[in-house]
Design brief:
Radius of gyration: 37 Å
Structural class: mainly alpha
Number of strands: 0
Oligomer: single chain
């Protein structure tokens, strides 16, 4: 009987003990973690240069999206006007139209016609040299503009690496100092600074190289279209020079 009563008492006490053990414990107040902006600000002076580089990168992308396009290099409207005026041999009219347009092909045509009008006795070979020189200059200008993105893609990771090295130096300095438990706080702060700088440098450099590849391909396509348009203008001019050369012997025979 005593054994039976002890078993009943143990069965009643077990749930009470379980409730006591599993009672929720209220944790102490946990400090709020830092935001991303706080981490960037605390990452050291290198972040100032990385931030300036990121602003410059965004500005370049916006400018290139507006300027590196087909309408800024070769426009169908200008080509139609140039074709009509060249067939009429209205060089002065086409020269005036070229001065009003800002496309790259307009600058090439303007250089050609300016040379042609000032040197009416020049042969077609000289006109072709003028066109090729100006076209090469415009193509080099387009390529040089895009290279700025490649420069940013190389400089940003290097700046991030500099910030990483400074953070590691600060971490080892904290390990060597006799500061007790404070050394671990300084150690973690230095490592955090190093990793944030590395991440920021890569976050700028990788998109810069991606946009560089995109705009480089677009630039090469536009340069090909510029060469095609220049060849078309030169072909029309060559026809005019051939007709002039055919009429010149006839005029000389009539005078004789």
């Amino acid at each position: 009987m005593k054994i039976f009563l002890s078993l009943i008492a143990a069965a009643i006490a077990t749930p009470l003990l379980a409730q006591t053990v599993t009672a929720p414990v209220i944790p102490p107040d946990i400090p709020h973690s830092k935001t991303v902006m706080d981490a960037l600000i605390a990452a050291g002076p290198v972040m100032i240069f990385l931030f300036a580089l990121s602003v410059f990168f965004v500005m370049l992308v916006i400018v290139y999206l507006m300027t590196i396009r087909r309408g800024a290099v070769v426009s169908s409207g200008f080509m139609a006007t140039a074709d009509a005026l060249l067939r009429k041999r209205d060089y002065l009219g086409l020269l005036a139209v070229s001065n009003r347009h800002g496309e790259a092909i307009a600058r090439v045509v303007q250089k050609m016609l300016d040379f042609t009008t000032k040197n009416p006795d020049a042969d077609f070979g000289h006109v072709r040299e003028i066109a090729e020189t100006e076209g090469t200059r415009v193509a080099a200008s387009l390529n040089n503009r895009v290279i700025y993105l490649a420069d940013i893609g190389m400089i940003a990771p290097l700046l991030g690496l500099l910030g990483t090295v400074l953070g590691i130096i600060r971490s080892f300095g904290a390990l060597g100092a006799d500061l007790g438990t404070a050394r671990y706080v300084l150690l973690s702060k230095g490592i955090s600074e190093a990793l944030v700088n590395t991440c920021a440098g890569l976050a700028i450099g990788i998109p810069a190289m991606i946009f560089y590849a995109f705009f480089r391909g677009k630039t090469q396509k536009l340069i090909s279209e510029l060469e095609s348009a220049t060849t078309h203008v030169l072909a029309l001019l060559s026809l005019q020079y051939e007709r002039r050369a055919e009429r010149t012997p006839v005029l000389i025979e009539d005078e004789l």
